[in-house]
Amino acid sequence: MNQAFSHRRGSARLTFTDAAGAPLKNQTIAYELVKHRFLFGFGAFDAVDAAMESTPPEQKAVLEDRLGKMLAIFNYGTLPFYWGRFEKEEGQPETQALLGGARWLLSRGVKVKGHPLCWHTVCAPWLLKYDNAAILDKQLARIRREVADFKGLIDTWDVINEVVIMPVFDKYDNAVTRIAEDLGRVGIVKAVFEAARELNPEATLILNDFDMSPKYERLIGDCLDAGIRIDVIGLQSHQHQGYWGMEKLQDVLKRFSRFGLPLHFTENTLISGDLMPQHIVDLNDWQVSDWPSTPEGEERQMREVEEMYTALFAHPQVEAITVWDAVDGKWLNAPSGLLRRDNSSKPAYTRLNELIKGEWSSRGSLVTDDQGRASLSGFLGEYRLTCGQTAAQVNLEPGRQEYILKL
Predict the structure, then answer these.
(1) How many alpha carbons lie under 13 Å from residue 245 in its C-beta half-sphere?
(2) DSSP code string of 41-80
(3) How crowded is residue 176: how many other Cβ atoms within 10 Å of its Cβ?
(4) Quick check: helix, strand or coil at residue 278?
(5) Measured by CB atoms within 10 angstroms of the end CB, which terminus of the chain is less buried, N or C?
(6) What's the pLDDT tens digit per position in 159-178?
(7) Which pairs count as long-range contacts for 92-95, CB under 8 Å and 24+ apart, including other chains?
């Protein structure tokens, strides 16, 4: 066993009985990990259209094929709540469409996250007609509405996105930067987190940013000092200009793990074509009509994905990694997906499947003793146990548990 992953494993003492409660003596029980506890995620935006009855059949078939490939590996999906698209006209949110996407994913065993509740980019332009006090009221009301409407379906949220740059963002006017200037970084984080917590006290609330500099560390520290309850630190890792490499990755892990909070790599991209030029400061400034995946780039992407996922899975505070683009040609038209534009699998997809479903999975068989007991040890998560035609499920959690199961 690779000791680097020992914290990802657990054990349980199982007692098996028949329907009448008698112990199943000397029986062979097959077991298989069917769902990791660790969150292997992807940008699941396509689930919204896949769930809609109005989506043309030929488009739906393409989407279902793509999503089927992703769901074969991943157990965690992010859905889009960009305010400017979610509510193009004030008072007319796309709630039903997003509810459909969330239910579509949940029915297939996928945990769902909403992204984001507050962000200065893709902000609703109709907010600009209001003064700052009204903007803040509407922003907080928007958060309460979404958190309440989706409670039980989406209980994990990127509450606020890219706060480090938010109050000094100057590429164009937007309502959220206006209120961030008034409240300050800590003030706006406090306001939006409190609004989200109010409607779902048990939700997992994430502070998310692309800025891996000490500025983000200071923001986190200042927020914690101000008594703001942050459940997870979100770390974006868009690598359009090249792989971070182990030195930077380990540096980021060391600096952000010092807060003692779970870490989620919320938006991960690794390119399988030519890299974006290094002189580009804002990735959004690189606009190209064609950005192909290449055989050489795909091999490089596979190696980088394997190294990065292995390092993150080995770190005890990392709880989630999300591939941002399932398929090429999404954000920035980049070849950043695990699938090509025609939904065919790249080497990185194949290797991740081998790791998540193979090397980091657990399956085998147990034999019960005269008391119907057996021990299960493996990677943490949900297991299916079968004996003949009967089956049971059990969750392997950290530490050692005891379960009585009827088969």
Answers:
(1) 4
(2) EEE-THHHHHH-TTS-HHHHHHHHHHHHHHHTT--EEEEE
(3) 26
(4) coil
(5) N
(6) 999 999 999 999 999 999 99
(7) 93/145, 93/146, 95/149
